[in-house]
Each structure stands twice: as structure tokens, then as C-alpha cells.
TrEMBL record:
Keywords: ATP-binding, Cell inner membrane, Cell membrane, Ion transport, Iron, Iron transport, Membrane, Nucleotide-binding, Translocase, Transport. Transmembrane segments: none annotated. It comes from the Bacteria. Residues 19-250 form the ABC transporter domain. The keyword Cell inner membrane applies. This is ABC transporter ATP-binding protein. One of its GO terms (molecular function) is ATP binding.
Amino acid sequence: MPPASETAASALLDTPHRLEVTGLTRAFAARAVVSDVSLQVAAGQVTCLLGPSGCGKSTTLRMIAGVETPDNGRIQIDGHDVFGPSANLPPEARGVGLMFQDFALFPHLTVAGNVAFGLAGDKAAKMRRVDELLEKVNLSGFGVKHPHELSGGEQQRVALARALAPRPRVMLMDEPFSGLDNRLRDGIRDATLAVLKAEGAAVLLVTHEPEEAMRMADEIALMRDGRIVQRGAPYNVYNAPVDRAAAAFFSDINVIRGISKGALTETPFGAFLTPGHLDGAEVDIVIRPQHLKIDFDRAGRGPYPTMSEGTPARGTVLRARYLGHASLVEFRMDFDGSVLTASVPGVFLPKADTPLWLMIRRDRCYVFPAC
Ligand SMILES: Nc1ncnc2c1ncn2[C@@H]1O[C@H](COP(=O)(O)OP(=O)(O)OP(=O)(O)O)[C@@H](O)[C@H]1O
């Protein structure tokens, strides 16, 4: 007999994902809008579908919800086809909860009436579920009010309670926080996440904001031109981008172009290891502003190369701005007049034309084929 831990592990492997999407494809007027999208979301997991406007996120969500018909692909919930070669269940039979940017509460119903709207069963059971959810979203006692008596944040929480009331197996959320005041948003995101986790639904959340995805997601699926280009934990997607565009989606980037020769690329910042690129191939060395290091001590004197950071290159300050948590300093580089941006924690506001040396941490830069 296998040990208990092995049995538990194989049981886990056998358990179907709560939501499994395979090869989902949709074109409008012969233009592919969603191409071969596959993803899995486990119960209690939040996956963020992240990408720029128009990349096909909402269309993907709408196909899973059942309000848009795929040209191809398969959608399974708890191992059962809700869409596929031999199935196409209507939205109400899929066991999904929906929440959109415009969460449109019914104005003529009370808060309790809104939350109870999709519930079946006897009145007492319905009221128990409504009370339970209003407590979870921190709106106990609000049941008798009407939507127009509530703030935007409170209405959003009622919409969340309404979507969760029938205990959906999968929650589909399309930019659910974008209508909210900036100051409210962080708190509401955190509170929403706590409720979603407590309810245990598999959540697929669409957003075009990397910060929102980083804050909410267990897994990010980065989408571009109808395809998922990278999937992984927020840490991995941020720190190991698949290409230059993926790096640029999360922050400003600096790019230094060079030509690979014998697994090395020489730049004004010294040599970088660039294995896997052909001799003569152009490569982009990509570095986020927070990893471009300023030598604060030398005031432009030097250079004195260091092992880990390569050769320093000199630039003069074009502009420095204070952003609250950090300062952003733009440099015009001596070597070719290009502009590079460094981000420094706290306050650092050197005067324009100040010469300073910059270095690149070898362990924090990415090398991609030039594009
Ligand atoms: N019913 C439709 N008919 C024709 N084109 C459509 C239809 N629905 C979506 N599209 C097009 O498909 C593309 C993807 O749209 P979709 O709404 O999925 O993108 P998105 O990534 O969610 O964008 P956003 O963040 O702006 O909502 C867009 O170019 C859009 O104009």
C-alpha cells in the first residue's frame, strides 16, 4: 500500500480543476480576437487575466460565462463540459457568478432583495444566506436600504454579495474595481479578496492594471493580441518576464542595445553574458529603473569598475522628480545621448546637469533578442 502522503498527493492530482479552459478561440469578422487560450483555476484560487485594452480578456471571460460562443475550444467546470464538441450550457446552468465594472444593482429592490435575487429555496434559508453574506461584506444592517442610499464602495460590496449568494463554483470578474474612487480601491480590493477566499470559488478576474493583478492574484495570465504569453505567480511573472513587452507591461524599462559575440555583449556598461544568441545578433539588455544603480559618492569622478556591477557609465541629470515613495531621475548618457531612468527610494533630487555614474546589476537585468 502506498504511504498516506502519496495517496493524498495522487488524489490531489486526480482532482479536476474547478475551471479548465482548453484551446479557446474566437474571431470577429475574420479577425482573431482570442487565439488558443488555455488556463486552469483551482477552487479558492484567484487568477488574473491581465493585458492591455483590446487584447481579448473580456471576450475570454464572456465565453466562459456563456454569453459569447467560442469558435473552438472546451470549457470544463469541475470536470464537466459546459462548452465543447457536445455541450453548450446556457449561462444560468454553468454555476458561474458574474461581476462587471458596471455592477448595476436593481434600483427598485432593497439591498437584501438584490442579494437574494438569484437564490432559490424557502424564505428563511434565503434570508440566512443574505444575512451571512451581508456580514461577510461588512454591511450587516444595510438590508433594508436601497442602492441609491449607498456609497459606490458599499454598492460594490452588495454586488459582490449578490454574485456570491448562489455559491457559484466559478466567479468571473471583469474590471470590478475600476469604477471606484482611488482612495477606496485598495481597501475594497483586500476586503473582496478575503470574502472570495472564504467562499472558496475559483476566481478569474480581468484587469488591465498590473498593480491590481499583483495585489489580487495567486496566478497571473498575461495576455497579448488574443494569446496568453506568460502564466505564473506574480513574483515570477514580474521577475522573469518572457520578453521585452512583458517586462515593459509592469514598469518603465531601460533598454541598452548591443551585438552578441561569443556569448558576450559589450556595452558602455561593460560586458554582459548573452548565451543563446548568435554571433552578430542584436540583443536588448532590459533593466527596470529601480535596478539602475547610481553611484552617489563619486560625483562623476572615476570610473572604478566593480565585479558584480560591471563598468559604470556616466550621464548627466536631465530631470529629477519626487514621487512620494521614491525619486525618479532621468539621465542623458555620455556614450550616445540616450535617456535612461533610475528610481531611488526616498528623496534624491540632484540638480539638472549634475554628472553621475550609473551601473547595472547583472543579476537584475534581462536579455532578449532585439525588437
Ligand atoms: N461583438 C464583437 N464584435 C466585433 N468585435 C468585437 C466584439 N467584441 C469584442 N470585439 C473586439 O475584440 C477585441 C477584444 O475585445 P475585448 O473586449 O475582449 O478586449 P479587452 O482585452 O477586454 O479590452 P478592454 O480592457 O478594453 O475591455 C477588441 O478589438 C474589440 O473591439
